[in-house]
Amino acid sequence: MERAEQLRLYNFFAKVPESRKMAGVFYEALAQQRFQEKISLSIIPMVKLDRREPTQKSKMPRWYTSHVLLTNPELEALRQNALRHVISINIVPSRTEEFTDNGPSHIEQDVLYIPEATNHESLDLFIWHGDHLYFFQFTISEEHDGVKPRVFLFFNRFPNIPQVSNWRFVFIIEPNLILKSPQPWALDLRGVPLFSAVVDVCQQQ
Question: What is this structure's pTM?
């Protein structure tokens, strides 16, 4: 499908709340195409309180994206601090390589890895650049389950990749979206920082 047609369908479905899931499919497709050419992002740390909010359903504290004003004064103060720690990413992938549920046979720097199945349980895209391993999760929803424990099992057999402290999980979201994601139950995942970046697929890169 041509980009113009994908964009038309994305805009069409995005206007109808009941069709947001379908709009998300086209948003991811459009953003993936862009990333295969160049990954140019300003990623901002997500923020959270150290306690569960009274109104939330999940029992764990929630991470919030930092691009839009937050009404909770404590979270807004954390957001203002996060805005002082923006990280710029500029990567031109050497090539794109698909991987199956079992993963690639090995991982090379600056290769953009995309799952063969569009509904891969744990990953959308990832790339190893410099000292960091970047994971990109595309969503236009207001809530996301976040990082899954299976990610660690997936990468355990690649001893050459950056250590966990140099992993960066980045949610790719629409403009003006506040995304919430619960802190993982798994202790080894709680130390992995979450980031987000806004990609407006309606604008040319």
Answer: 0.90
